[in-house]
Design a protein that fits this description.
It is a single chain. By secondary structure, the chain is of the alpha+beta class. The chain contains 7 helices and 4 strands, in the order ααβββαααβαα. A hairpin with a 4-residue loop joins strand 2 and strand 3. The longest helix is centred in the C-terminal third of the chain and has 24 residues. The chain is elongated, with a radius of gyration of 17 Å. The model has no long low-confidence stretch (mean pLDDT about 90).
Length: about 140
């Protein structure tokens, strides 16, 4: 098994995008086609949500499974057996804590938060749009 040098790993990690990822673009395109208008990577809100529908006070995050710790107990066990285990466990744990804090802050500010896993968007973007539409419907009902 070939190991990456620090420089190679740094180059690989610096190429990982944190906005306009494939999953974000796929979901945004589907929403746009349905007539929904949004802001992307909205800096005025905590966590710079990937998609913001200001009209409904709704934010959507498109989370990658690895960096946001999907199935965390299983992933943590895998990481323990891998390279640089301490670093990755700490990093992903902090990401998970930060995600929860951002959710709390946004909810306190009156925003509704939806988080999708990347694989769910890739597998069935129409279902993700349906979840967003159902949430919008609920928000509109509660406003009346």
């Amino acid at each position: 098994m070939d190991r990456l040098t620090k420089e190679q790993r740094h180059k690989n990690m610096s190429n990982i995008k944190n906005k306009d990822t494939g999953i974000e673009v796929k979901l945004r395109n589907a929403l746009w086609k349905k007539g929904y208008r949004y802001r992307k990577n909205y800096k005025k809100l905590p966590g710079k949500p990937d998609i913001v529908l200001p009209k409904y006070k709704l934010v959507v995050f498109c989370d990658s499974e690895f960096f946001h710790g999907k199935d965390w107990e299983d992933l943590r066990e895998q990481l323990k057996r891998g390279n640089n285990a301490e670093f990755w466990i700490k990093k992903i744990s902090q990401n998970r804590i930060r995600d929860e804090e951002i959710n709390k802050q946004l909810k306190f500010m009156g925003w509704t938060v939806i988080r999708f896993w990347g694989k769910d968007i890739k597998k069935d973007v129409a279902q993700c749009v349906k979840v967003i539409e159902e949430t919008i419907f609920e928000i509109m009902l509660n406003e009346k």
